[in-house]
Amino acid sequence: MAANLKLRSQETSRRRFSHDASCSHCNIPFPDLPTSMRYGVIAFTSIACYLNTLEYDLVHDDVFAIKDNTDIRSENPLFNILSNDFWGRPMSSNRSHKSYRPLCTLTFRMNYAIHGLNPFGYHAVNVVLHGVVCLLYMFMCETVAFKSNVLAFLAGLLFASHPVHTEAVSRIK
Q1: Of 65, 58, 42, 44, nearest in space to 170 by CA
Q2: Which of 3, 45, 62, 153 is the most buried (most CB within 10 A)?
Q3: pLDDT class for 69, splitting at 50, 70, 90?
Q4: Residue 169 in 3-state DSSP?
Q5: For the chain, what is the domain count?
Q6: Averaged over 133-148, what is the pLDDT?
Q7: What Cα–Cα distance (Å) separates residue 31 from each residue in 7, 14, 75?
Q8: Do residue 130 and residue 79 come from a single domain?
Q9: Is the pTM higher than 0.90?
């Protein structure tokens, strides 16, 4: 009788903490958070980690890719984005770096139209894009990689806060 009550108590606590069958194997009690709460925590974490970058200035290659790049200005034809490299030089030129990133240059052009050369806008777009990528990563983990929402959530948290993303988010290019 006592063993039966103990077993029933363990099953109840497992159900209360997680609906994932795979989580019961690792014996880590983790509360069953609603989907919106999990995604909200990931979004908050991904953005909070890089809020301090909003006040940064343009550094290193950002100066050449934004301040010195005439392709991002509205005076130049939009078609130049397709025929020039990332730095605004013709791809056929010997001085061209041959780094062809027209979508990135187009986002710089949109940023320039809204914020001019103010670095805040460029950094804000990077932080928001990082948040979106983190949400997509967690979604993919939930639907494809893991059978457990808990593991997907933990993977999303690790992805959102991992320092390997620092250069990609805090620098503009």
Answers
A1: 58
A2: 153
A3: confident
A4: helix
A5: 3
A6: 86
A7: 20, 9, 55
A8: no
A9: no
